[in-house]
Each structure stands twice: as C-alpha cells, then as structure tokens.
C-alpha cells in the first residue's frame, strides 16, 4: 500500500470513527437528557393527578364529618338523613353516593346522585352489599374518621367514613360518603390534562410494566416513571384504602414528543457532519497530495537516482519551504555527507591495512579451509615470500603443506581442527625454505570469515636469532651459575675470616686492656706519689697516662665499628628530633661553661633501627659540638628538606669547617682532617656513621668551608 493510499485510509477512517463517536455520544447524551426530561414531566403530571385524588378524598372527609356532626344531635337519624340528602346537597358536595348505617350495621339511609346528568339516582344492590361488607372492618377500627380508595362492585371508589357518637362516646351510626373513579371520570381527567389515565386493581392480573411499577413506587416517594416504548412514557402512583394499604395503582400514559424531536435533531446533526466531513476529507486529501505527497514523491525519485548511480557526491535539491520535508532533505544530504566521508575513511583504512599487510616485518598468510581452497595460500605479504625464499607469485600457487617440514605436517589436521573450533593457536614450528633449509617459526593463527567463507589468518615470525640467543643465554646462565657457586664459596670464606677477625678483635681487646689497665693504675699511683715527682718525670708519666686513655678509647671505637656489621636491624618509627634534643642537652650538662645555640626542627620521624640511629645522631652532633668550640656564637642545627628522591636530613654547625678537597677522606677509619692537639678524637666516628647509614640503604655527604662550618646530609633508604 502506497503512502497516498494509507493517507486516504487514515483520513477516511478517522472521519468515520469521529462520526461514529459523535453519533453515539449524541444518542447517549442528548436522547438520555430528553428521556430524563420526559420522566420528570410524567412524574409531575402523575403527582398532580395523585394530588387531585387526595384533594377529593379530603373533600369527602369534610363532607362525611359535617354530616356526622349534623346527625350527632338528631334523635331520628333515618328521617333526618332523608331530609338532609337532597339533590342540592349531593350536587354541592360533589357526591356520587352517601349512606348511613346504625350501630348494628343496618342501612338506615342511602342516596345516590349522577353528577354528570345532575339527577338523583339509585345506589344498586351490588354497591350496597359491597359497602355493607366494608362496614365491620370500619366499625372495628379505633379511628373515628377513615378515607381511601376501595373496590365497590368491581370499580375503584373514593370513600370517607366518619362515626356518629352519642354524648357518652358510643357509636350510634356510621356515615359513608363516596365518589366513583369510573370510566367517565377518567375521560374527564384525560380531556383536562391530555394524559391517558388507567386505574389497576392490585389484586387482579397486571401488565408487566405495572408489576414493575408496584415495586418501584415503594422506593420512589410513591411516584415512579418508566419508558414503555419509543412512542410513550408512563407515570405510576399507588392508591391506598381506608386502612392505609395499597389497593390500586394509577398509570398515566403520555406520548414522547421530545424523544422524537431528539431523534430528528440527531439525524440532522449526523447528516450535517457527514457533509462537512466529506468536504473536510476532500480538502485534506487535496492538501496532503499537493503539499506533501507530490514533494515526497519527488524526494523519493531523487534518492532513487542517487542509489541507482551510486554517486554519493550528488545532493538532493532543497525546496524553499521551511518544513519537515525540507528538513528531511537536509537530513538526507547530511547522511550523504556522512556516507561520503565514511567511504573516504574506508578507502583510507583499506589503504592503511593494505600497507600494513604488505609492509609488515612478520609474515602474514591467509589459508583457505573449505572445498578446493583447503590448505591453499590465498594471500600473503612480501615478508612471507622473503622469509621462505620464494617470489610472491610462487608462494600464492602453493599450499601450506609445501612450506611445512615433514614433522610439522604430521600435526596439521589437529591444528586446523583447533582453529576451526574458534581457538587461536600459538606454537613454534619448523618451515622449509626454497633451498630446502629448515628454520624455526613462532606461529599465531586463528579463524576469520570473509564473505561467509572460513579462512586461517596466520602471523609467522622467524625466531632463528632468538633461538641462537637462547642458546647463548643458556651458556651464560651456566657461567653465571658457576660464578654464583664461586661467590658462595668466597662468601663462606669471608664469613670465616670475619669470625676470625671478630675473635682477633676480642682477643686483642682483652689482651691489651689488661696491661693498659695496669699501666693506667701505676701512672695514677706515680702521679699521686708524695713527695711529688720531679716536673720532668711527672710530664712523662702524664703523657703515658693520656696515651693509655686514647688507646682505650680507640679499642672501644674499633669494637663498636666491628659490631655494626653483625647487628640485626629492627625497623621502627624513630623521632630523630627527640634524639637530637636529648644528645644536645647531655652535652650542655657535660660542658656547662660553653654557650651553644641550637635549632632543631620538631617531629622529624624516620624508619630504622632506633639503637643504630641514636649512635649515628650522637656521633654527628658530637662532631658539630666539638668543631664549633672556637666559634664566638656557636650554632648547631638539625632539620630535613625534600628533593626528588625523598627526605634529606642534615646536621649543620658554624665551626671550623674543612676544605672540600679533603671531603673524600672524611669517612675513612683513623683519618682526621684536623690536628689532635686542636680537636680530640679517634678518627672512627664518621666511619661508624657512614656504616650505619649504608646498612639502612642510604647515603651521606658533606658540604663545608674552612672557618664557616660544615653541613652533613644523609638519607635513610
């Protein structure tokens, strides 16, 4: 179905649907409204008729009451009644009959009257018998006055009853006044109201609508309305007897002019809508065809021409209208721009991949897997041809089995099965060159699909050089293994030497300390001799004593230096600032005559062995304290700074300093840059510091200037 046909179908279907909805809505709403209005009217008319009957009953009741009052004071009820019930009385009171019964239920007076002909008439025996049958129930009722509609001789009659009592309150007689609801009276009502009125006895056979109305009147305030058919509507009102029980029901039937007018009106509206809708559909079809379909057909024709020619550089002409079709044409042109760019990109991409394929340093081979192409080399790059010593044309006429060695061809079926299952296969294989020589390859191959056919894409790399390097590496590995074994033996020998050295140190320390202690003791005794020694001899003994003390300190320093290599490191977080403050406080107590300013950066924390780091800080700060002895305003600083490798700690003083030419000698054992007569020392302290820092994976260096102090920098791993 074309767009034009679909457009016509949509417009016509929409119009029909709207017409159906409007017609149904009009029928439901308008006719329902008319029906409601008609029901309200018939209820009003029915209530009016019911009220008329009630009014007539009230008049009858007044007449019956007035007659009862007249008879109350009469001694002769019969004769008085005959004189009272004249034609004038009957006509003035609008009575069809009146009867008086004594206390025993006997009829003492009765009079009938034909109101239509205005003449007195006789009450039939059948009517008298019916009234006499009601009398016992009336007399037995406790009420003095009763009124209602009763059935008398097969016809509905409105009656009012009133008791005549004597002075003692005893019933002397009963007055019954009545008015017949016969056909003549109903015709009079019809002529007065235009409504057809019928009265139904509830004890007789009833029509269907009347049966429904009997139940409905109990729930609708005594008045009920219902549609009988499309031409008439009825209202219903119950009539109660003298005891308050429904005995008859009045049905008022009227025609339905509003409903008929409503149907005609709806027919006119629907006809007008059909005409207007037809005109609208024609106009819309012409508009859609002229403004949309024609231009859309032209747009389709332009796009078809571009498709047939395959030239995406052509563009769809734009109209001067600023609407959706023009926007569609712009979008098509934008799409053609994108397609043109994509084609250019695809050509560029194909060119790049072709260059990569052809110029790749590793061999790339595409092998067929299906039918006659199975095993054939379908495509290959120049590197594959050079790798095997063939020209590219020669290679493309061969099968992969021609390049495999006999050993490799044994596993071809298994390899191709793995690849066909989707697995990428990587292995080291051997191939044959054109001259028959074999060479190793590292192959990485997998399954690809081109135009729905399966192929193997393989990447081959000549690993001859790698194999040679691996053999060379294996040889070097053996050499390294031999060297490691030699190094292990040397390490064992070195450990033995160290143990011997440690034994020697402790032996020397013990063997030397004993004579040194004796020398020190004898020197002390000689110096304390009384009388004192001669000055020259005392100087000699003092020198011997001081040399003993220096040698003892030297032994302690050597032992400490030896222990550093054996001590196991226990890493922890160490506050170097707290250690520096403690060391400088102890020095200030030991040398109270010196005034030294200190500047210690707070909370400098490092990770290392707390015992060794304390020894390091003691040696560095002792050096700073010692070499700032001759400074007028001595200053010792400890701090930290950051560089690209991490924190760099420093100890700075403004003491004697040294020449940077001698910086290389600083950390040698027993090497001193100053004369011992100026600054005492063993020459082991900085060597100890360097060894501690090396054990922590750090480094130490110094910057100084003679007379301007020195700064020692160090890191800790």
Indicate the percent of residues in helices.
40-55%
Query: Total number of β-strand segments?
Result: 22
Uncertain regions: pLDDT < 50 for 5+ in a row? none
Q: Based on helices, strands and strand pairing, what is the structural class?
A: alpha+beta
CATH fold annotation of the largest domain: Beta-Lactamase
Strand order of the largest sheet: 3-2-1-6-5-4
Mean pLDDT: 81
User: Mind telling me the CATH superfamily name of the largest domain?
Assistant: PAS domain
Q: How many distinct helices?
A: 18
Total number of domains: 4
CA distance, first residue to last residue: 85 Å
What characteristic shape results from the CA principal axes?
Answer: elongated
Give the biggest beta sheet. 6 strands, antiparallel
Q: What portion of the residues fall into strands of 2 or more residues?
A: 15-25%
* Alpha carbon gyration radius: 69 Å
CATH class of the largest domain: Alpha Beta
Name the CATH architecture of the largest domain. Answer: 2-Layer Sandwich
How would you describe the overall organization of this protein?
The chain is α+β, with helices and mostly antiparallel strands. It has 4 domains: 10-255, 2-Layer Sandwich (Beta-Lactamase); 360-462, PAS domain (Beta-Lactamase, 2-Layer Sandwich); 479-566; 569-714, Histidine kinase-like ATPase, C-terminal domain (Heat Shock Protein 90). Helices cover 53% and strands 22% of the residues. The protein has 18 helices and 22 strands. The protein has helices at residues 3-72, 77-84, 87-93, 125-140, 183-193, 208-216, 257-309, 324-359, 382-388, 392-396, 400-403, 406-409, 412-420, 464-527, 535-564, 576-590, 610-627, 685-695, and strands at 97-102, 107-114, 119-121, 145-152, 155-165, 171-180, 196-201, 224-227, 232-240, 246-255, 363-368, 377-380, 425-432, 438-450, 453-462, 571-575, 596-600, 605-609, 634-643, 646-653, 700-704, 710-714. It is elongated, with a radius of gyration of 69 Å. The mean pLDDT is 81.
């Amino acid at each position: 179905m074309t767009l034009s046909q679909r457009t016509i179908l949509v417009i016509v279907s929409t119009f029909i649907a709207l017409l159906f909805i409007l017609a149904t809505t009009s029928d439901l709403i308008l006719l329902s409204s008319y029906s409601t209005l008609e029901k309200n009217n018939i209820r009003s008319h029915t209530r009016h008729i019911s009220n008329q009957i009630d009014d007539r009953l009230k008049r009858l009741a007044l007449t019956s009451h007035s007659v009862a009052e007249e008879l109350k004071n009469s001694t002769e009820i019969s004769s008085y009644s005959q004189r009272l019930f004249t034609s004038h009385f009957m006509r003035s009171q609008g009575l069809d009959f009146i009867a008086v019964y004594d206390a025993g239920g006997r009829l003492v007076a009765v009079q009938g009257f034909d109101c239509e002909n205005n003449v007195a008439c006789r009450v039939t025996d059948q009517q008298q018998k019916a009234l006499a049958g009601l009398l016992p129930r009336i007399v037995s009722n406790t009420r003095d006055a009763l009124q209602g509609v009763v059935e008398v001789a097969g016809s509905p009659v409105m009656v009012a009853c009133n008791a005549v009592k004597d002075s003692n309150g005893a019933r002397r007689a009963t007055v019954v006044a009545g008015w017949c609801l016969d056909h003549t009276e109903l015709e009079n009502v019809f002529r007065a109201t235009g409504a057809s009125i019928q009265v139904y006895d509830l004890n007789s056979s009833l029509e269907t609508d009347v049966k429904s109305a009997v139940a409905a009147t109990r729930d609708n305030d005594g008045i009920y309305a219902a549609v009988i058919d499309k031409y008439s509507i009825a209202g219903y009102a119950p009539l109660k007897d003298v005891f308050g029980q429904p005995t008859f029901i009045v049905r008022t039937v009227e025609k339905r002019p509003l409903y008929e007018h409503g149907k005609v009106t709806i027919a006119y509206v629907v006809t007008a809508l059909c005409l207007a809708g037809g005109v609208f559909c024609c106009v819309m079809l012409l508009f859609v065809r002229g403004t949309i379909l024609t231009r859309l057909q032209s747009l389709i024709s332009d796009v078809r021409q571009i498709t047939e020619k395959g030239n995406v550089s052509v563009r769809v002409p734009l109209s001067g209208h600023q609407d959706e079709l023009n926007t569609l044409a712009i979008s098509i042109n934008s799409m053609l721009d994108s397609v043109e760019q994509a084609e250019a990109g695809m050509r560029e991409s194909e060119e790049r991949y072709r260059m990569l394929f052809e110029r790749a340093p590793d061999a790339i081979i595409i092998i067929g897997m299906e039918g006659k192409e199975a095993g054939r080399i379908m495509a290959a790059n120049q590197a594959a041809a050079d790798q095997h010593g063939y020209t590219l044309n020669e290679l493309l006429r061969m099968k992969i089995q021609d390049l495999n060695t006999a050993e490799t061809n044994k596993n071809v079926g298994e390899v191709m099965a793995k690849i066909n299952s989707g697995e990428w296969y990587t292995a080291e294989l051997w191939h044959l060159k054109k001259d028959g020589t074999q060479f190793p390859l590292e192959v990485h191959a997998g399954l690809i699909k081109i135009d729905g056919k399966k192929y193997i894409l393989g990447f081959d790399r000549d690993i001859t050089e790698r194999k040679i390097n691996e053999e060379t590496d294996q040889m070097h590995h053996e050499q390294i293994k031999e060297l490691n074994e030699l190094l292990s033996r040397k390490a064992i020998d070195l450990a033995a030497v160290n143990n011997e050295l440690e034994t020697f140190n402790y032996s020397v320390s013990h063997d030397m300390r004993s004579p040194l202690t004796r020398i020190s003791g004898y020197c002390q005794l000689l110096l304390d001799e009384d009388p004192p020694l001669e000055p020259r001899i005392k100087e000699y003994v003092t020198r011997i004593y001081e040399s003993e003390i220096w040698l003892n300190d030297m032994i302690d320093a050597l032992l400490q230096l030896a222990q550093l290599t054996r001590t196991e490191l226990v890493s922890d977080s160490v506050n170097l600032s707290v250690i520096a403050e403690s060391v400088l406080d102890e020095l200030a107590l030991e040398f109270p005559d010196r005034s030294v300013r200190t500047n210690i950066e707070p909370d400098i924390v490092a990770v290392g062995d707390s015992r060794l780091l304390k020894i390091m800080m003691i040696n560095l700060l002792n050096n700073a304290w010692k070499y700032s002895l001759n400074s007028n305003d001595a200053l010792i600083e400890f701090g930290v700074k950051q560089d690209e490798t991490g924190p760099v700690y420093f100890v700075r003083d403004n003491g004697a300093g040294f020449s940077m030419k001698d910086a290389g000698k600083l950390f040698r054992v027993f090497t001193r840059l100053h004369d011992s007569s100026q600054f005492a020392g063993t020459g082991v302290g900085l060597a100890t510091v360097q060894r501690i820092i090396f054990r922590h994976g750090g480094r130490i260096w110094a910057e100084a200037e003679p007379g301007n102090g020195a700064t020692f920098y160090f890191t800790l791993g």
